[in-house]
């Protein structure tokens, strides 16, 4: 384990901590005196543990900044060139400094320790750091889209600072930090499928779940809406999904007939209740529509929670929509991946990853189908999903 200590003095506090770290067989313990030297060190070396004093100068010869340690941590978290240490601990021997900073540290998911001369707390830090190192590929939220173009582009432009991960995999992965409704820092991972369809979506979802063990798996993107029930750009949050092509085909007097046998899967009841509350209160929708940079439909934007059907084909005929409506009259949308994502989530193991499908209407799967509203639909879907993870999920 590599440890970097930032403290403006090489005093009893630093000496005691360094001795304790070395007694625990840390590979390397480095001490720097100011924020600039620490920044240069983090640019050149990957550290597992960062211990920073609250009161440090910006550079050699500068006066002490009473909030220098916290300001430095905020700086490196917004710098894509820095490989952030797995564990970050603030430390101070000043009681007033501790009380004025502890809430700020906690809100970021960092630890602040009031040093009283004892070093036993280092054991807990090392143990926790090792545990987090083992869990560094665990994420709170995983995003998946079907299409790289439009859908995934919209996700990577959702205001979170996405960074590409160096993972040996045929998929490209991006990670970002966001803050949940309690102000706690959370980790998100995002990828897209190599092609459309339930099979690829299920395989990609299962791989993401196995690699990153997310609390929540979200698919965003575009879908066809059932005309008369939703409007262009409207967000559909699925509370039920099924494969509309499931069943048996047989000959009949009018030709080949599909005997439907759909397996309808429902999403988590608590999630569904929260989504319906968002919909009924019309949260976020007016602001999202107003913020889109481009043409928007004349209709107002709404969120609908309801039944979403998945199938193997891109649809552009109203007769197939009528067939799907005969399976479940309350269906409000049709697309090609949701059922695969939800099945993968349900089969993910004893610690089941919850799933949400959030897609927006880009057409009505009829003869007038076109791509005019795909960018807008991808934007509304992504925007609502981003608000949901920040303001409505209990992690």
TrEMBL record:
Gene3D superfamilies found in the cross-reference section: 3.40.50.2300, Nucleoside phosphorylase domain
Any one of the GO BP annotations: L-methionine salvage from S-adenosylmethionine
Domain called Nucleoside phosphorylase: residue spans: 186-373
MF term (GO), any: adenosylhomocysteine nucleosidase activity
InterPro entries found in the cross-reference section: CheY-like_superfamily (IPR011006), Nucleoside_phosphorylase_d (IPR000845), Nucleoside_phosphorylase_sf (IPR035994)
SUPFAM superfamilies in alphabetical order: CheY-like (SSF52172), Purine and uridine phosphorylases (SSF53167)
GO cellular component, one term: cytosol
Name by which UniProt lists this protein: Nucleoside phosphorylase domain-containing protein
Organism classification: Bacteria, Pseudomonadati, Pseudomonadota, Gammaproteobacteria, Alteromonadales
């Amino acid at each position: 384990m590599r440890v970097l200590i930032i403290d403006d003095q090489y005093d009893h506090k630093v000496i005691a901590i360094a001795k304790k770290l070395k007694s625990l067989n840390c590979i390397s313990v480095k001490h720097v005196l100011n924020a600039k030297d620490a920044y240069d060190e983090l640019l050149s070396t990957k550290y597992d543990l960062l211990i920073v004093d609250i009161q440090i100068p910006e550079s050699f010869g500068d006066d002490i900044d009473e909030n220098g340690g916290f300001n430095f941590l905020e700086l490196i978290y917004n710098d894509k060139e820095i490989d952030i240490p797995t564990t970050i601990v603030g430390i101070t021997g000043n009681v007033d400094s501790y009380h004025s900073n502890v809430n700020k540290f906690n809100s970021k998911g960092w630890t602040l320790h009031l040093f009283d001369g004892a070093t036993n707390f280092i054991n807990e830090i090392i143990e926790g750091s090792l545990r987090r190192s083992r869990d560094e590929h665990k994420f709170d939220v995983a995003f998946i889209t079907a299409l790289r173009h439009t859908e995934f582009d919209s996700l990577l432009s959702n205001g979170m600072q996405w960074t590409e991960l160096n993972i040996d995999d045929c998929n490209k992965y991006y990670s970002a930090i966001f803050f949940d409704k309690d102000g706690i820092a959370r980790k998100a991972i995002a990828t897209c499928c190599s092609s459309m369809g339930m099979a690829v979506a299920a395989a990609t979802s299962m791989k993401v779940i196995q690699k990153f063990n997310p609390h929540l798996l979200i698919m965003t993107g575009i879908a066809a809406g059932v005309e008369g029930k939703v409007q262009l750009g409207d967000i559909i949050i699925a509370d039920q999904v099924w494969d509309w092509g499931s069943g048996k085909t047989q000959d009949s007097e009018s030709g080949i007939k599909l005997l439907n046998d759909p397996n309808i899967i429902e999403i988590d009841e608590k999630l569904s209740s929260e989504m319906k509350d968002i919909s009924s209160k019309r949260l976020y929708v007016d602001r999202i529509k107003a913020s889109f940079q481009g043409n928007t439909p004349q209709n107002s934007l709404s969120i609908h929670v309801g039944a979403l059907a998945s199938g193997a084909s891109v649809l552009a005929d109203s007769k197939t929509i009528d067939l799907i409506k005969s399976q479940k009259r309350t269906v409000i949308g049709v697309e090609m991946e949701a059922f695969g994502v939800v099945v993968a989530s349900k089969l993910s193991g004893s610690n089941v990853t919850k799933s949400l499908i959030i897609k927006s209407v880009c057409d009505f799967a009829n003869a007038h189908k076109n791509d005019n509203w795909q960018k807008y639909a991808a934007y509304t879907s992504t925007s609502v999903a981003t608000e949901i993870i920040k303001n409505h999920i209990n992690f």
